[in-house]
Amino acid sequence: MRSIIFRLTLAAVLTCPFVACAQTTFVEIAASPDKAAGLYYKYPVSKSQNTKAPKGFKPFYISHYGRHGSRYLVEPEQYGKPYEILERADKAGALTDFGKDVMNRLAIIKEDAAGREGELTQIGVKQHHDIAQRMYKAFPEVFAGEPILSARSTTVMRCAHSMAAFCEGLKELKPSLNIPRESGKRYMKYMANVSPQGAAFTKRDSPSSKRSNEFAKDVTEPDRLMSAIFKDDEYLKNNNIDGKELMRSLFLIATDVPNTECDVRLDDLFTPEERFKLWKNFNYHYYIHMSNPTSAQGTILDNARPLLANIVESADEAIASGKNGADFRFGHDSCIVPLLGLMKVDGCYGSTDDPYELHTVYADYKISPMAANLQMIFFRDKKGEVIVKFMLNEREVGIPVETDIYPFYKWDETRDYFNKILGEK
Predict the structure, then answer these.
(1) Which tens digit of pLDDT belongs to each residue from 381-410?
(2) How many CB atoms lie within 10 A of CB 247?
(3) What DSSP element (H or E) covers 237?
């Protein structure tokens, strides 16, 4: 009986890959607490997946988009505000021993981040260095001879530094590679585009933002944590301390600190149940700003249209040249997340307005951890036929185009699919 159930379950997973990829459960987060970091999840290091190409096909071109690697939180007050709240409470004699311990840990984390807010960490440098080297070793034919290569980043320094680390990783394996690197405003229209409609949907006083705030208040349950940190509730009330906001601030620091060289942790602040609910809170918050909520009617995904157009155009130019090479692009989660949704990559475009159900169709850490990357690997045979496969975070993924050679797709059919998307609005 167990074998029958297993076969039925396996069949359901194989025939419904989107559900299997997208759905997240409490058990999964409890088993791997770091995943609750969501977009702050440190890149899961792995060997690149590499299904052997159909007979006669050799890789010749790679189209890439990578999110910057691990970084510090962007704003100084993200560290400073929660520390200052605890520091004032300590001076007032309102902290428990545990609260004092949390304050002391925050002081260390705050000092480590001082003057580095928003910057790439050395962990982020290594992520891109190693991703590049795994790419080279998996597809050496792309880099044979004198390949035509380009690397571009947004004007934000952590992206430019990610680009530098990536290119350095390649050049360590082949010093003769010529990789022009650019980081200029002229590329921002497709590297980090935000449409007026998308901006309107996500502005602070929009219905979507209000819904997100209401959801955050509902799922954030700070009483246990506040009682562990503060001696009594009266101090919180008398000093207008918002326990929900403080809990979320502490959670944000806790999820990001593994991306830094600081060896202090805050994981013990949260129970598994609290961690799961806080993850759902942030998963929804980032989802409505970057992905495919139903009420957005595709406006957030539209931000990626110029990027997709550049990918198609660049690929066609590379194919027409008859040469081997690659285009490397480096940006942000707000770029790669809508791109994956627009392309309808498996597990990346679930659509709902219900924050309580989002985790069943969408999980941010599966899509855009730190150093998230999309690699489109192009193969060609002697007849000139071109096929392509898609790798998200170095794992092979699918798109809704019929193919009998999965994970590979015919480029002509894939290009038609992308052009249809680009022509819809």
Answers:
(1) 999 999 999 999 999 999 999 999 999 999
(2) 24
(3) helix 233-238
CA–CA distances in Å: residue 115 to residues 75, 249, 315, 375: 10, 19, 40, 33
- Locate 347 and state its tokens: 């597990």
Given a cut of 80, whether residue 289 has pLDDT beyond it is yes
For tokens 């590679």, the residue is: 177
Could you give the CA distance from residue 265 to residue 277 in angstroms, rounded to a whole number? 20
How many helices and strands (H and E) does the chain possess? 18, 8
Tokens read off for 152 = 């571009």
CB–CB of 71/160 below 8 Å?
Answer: no
Q: Are strands 181-182 and 408-410 parallel, antiparallel or unpaired?
A: unpaired
Do the Cβ atoms of 254 and 269 come closer than 8 Å? yes
C-alpha distances out from residue 267 to 105, 222, 225, 302, Å: 11, 15, 12, 37
- The whole-model pTM stands at 0.92
Q: How far apart are the first and last CA of the chain?
A: 52
Pick the CATH number of 2-71+121-196+291-422 from 3.40.50.1240, 3.10.50.40, 1.10.260.40, 3.40.50.740: 3.40.50.1240
Of the candidates 235, 195, 224, the one whose C-alpha atom is nearest the C-alpha of residue 92 is 235
3-state secondary structure (DSSP) of residue 146: coil
The residue ranges of every structural domain in the chain are 2-71+121-196+291-422, 76-117+201-289
Amino acid at 19: V
Q: Which residues contact 288 (CB under 8 A, 6 or more apart)?
A: 201, 202, 208, 209, 211, 212, 296, 300
Peptide bond into 407 cis (omega under 30): yes
Whole-number Cα distances in Å, 87 to 34, 235, 315: 28, 13, 55
Total count of residues recorded for the chain: 425
